[in-house]
Amino acid sequence: MFALPLGNDASLRPLEVWHAEEFAAHLDRAREHIRPWVGPGFVTDDLDGARATLRRYAERQAADGARLYGIWLGGTLVGGVMFTEFDARMGYCEVGCWLEPGAEGHGLVTRACAVLLDWALGTRGLHRAEWHCRADNDRSAAVARRLGMTLEGVRREFWPYDGARYDKQIWGVLASEWTNPGR
Ligand SMILES: CC(C)(COP(=O)(O)OP(=O)(O)OC[C@H]1O[C@@H](n2cnc3c(N)ncnc32)[C@H](O)[C@@H]1OP(=O)(O)O)[C@@H](O)C(=O)NCCC(=O)NCCS
C-alpha cells in the first residue's frame, strides 16, 4: 500500500491480514529468537495463528487502538513495531517491537519506533508513551534508552517464562520530552 523508507534498503509498512503467509514464514525464522521476550500470544506456530494475530490487530486498529507495522529489508519481512496499547482518551500508548536475528544491529527498530512516537506524541497529541520489557532484555532496553525514554519502574517477578518469573521494566517518554533521535 505505502512504505516509509528506513534507510539501508529497509521500509516500514502496515502489516495486514493479506500478509498472513509472509508473516507466518517470517515467524518461522524469528520464533525461537523472540519467544523469551514477547507476549506468548504473539508467538504462533502456523498460518492460522499468524492470520489470527493480524486480524486481532486490524480489529483493534478499527477501534483506534493497537496497530501493527512490518519492517521489510530488501523485499523480505524481517520484523516490525507496534502499538501494543493505544488509548487516545487516556493520552497514552505502549510501543513494542521484534526482529528476526539476521536483521538486528542496523538501527531498524529504533528508526521505526521513532516514526510511531512522532505520530503518537505529535500528530495524535498523546501525552506519554511506554516501553515494557523483561529486565534482562538488554537489547530491548537499549532501544528504549536510544529513544530517550526514562526507566520509570520495575514490576518485580511479573513475567512468567519457562517455569521462572522475571522482573519487567517500564520505560516512558512524555510528549514534552520527545525528540526524534534520527533528526
Ligand atoms: C529488541 C530488538 C528488536 C532490538 O534489535 P536491535 O537490532 O538491537 O535494535 P535496532 O534495530 O534499533 O538496532 C540497534 C543496533 O544497531 C546499531 N546501529 C547501526 N546503525 C544504527 C543507527 N543508524 N541507529 C541506531 N542504531 C544503529 C546499534 O549500534 C545497535 O547495535 P548494538 O546493540 O550492537 O550496538 C531485537 O533484539 C529483538 O527482536 N529481540 C527479540 C524480541 C524482543 O526482545 N522484542 C522486544 C520485546 S520488549
Automatic annotation (TrEMBL):
<feature type="domain" description="N-acetyltransferase">
    <location>
        <begin position="15"/>
        <end position="171"/>
    </location>
</feature>
<dbReference type="InterPro" id="IPR051908">
    <property type="entry name" value="Ribosomal_N-acetyltransferase"/>
</dbReference>
<dbReference type="GO" id="GO:0008999">
    <property type="term" value="F:protein-N-terminal-alanine acetyltransferase activity"/>
</dbReference>
<dbReference type="InterPro" id="IPR016181">
    <property type="entry name" value="Acyl_CoA_acyltransferase"/>
</dbReference>
<protein>
    <submittedName>
        <fullName>N-acetyltransferase</fullName>
    </submittedName>
</protein>
<dbReference type="GO" id="GO:0005737">
    <property type="term" value="C:cytoplasm"/>
</dbReference>
<dbReference type="GO" id="GO:1990189">
    <property type="term" value="F:protein N-terminal-serine acetyltransferase activity"/>
</dbReference>
<dbReference type="Pfam" id="PF13302">
    <property type="entry name" value="Acetyltransf_3"/>
</dbReference>
<dbReference type="InterPro" id="IPR000182">
    <property type="entry name" value="GNAT_dom"/>
</dbReference>
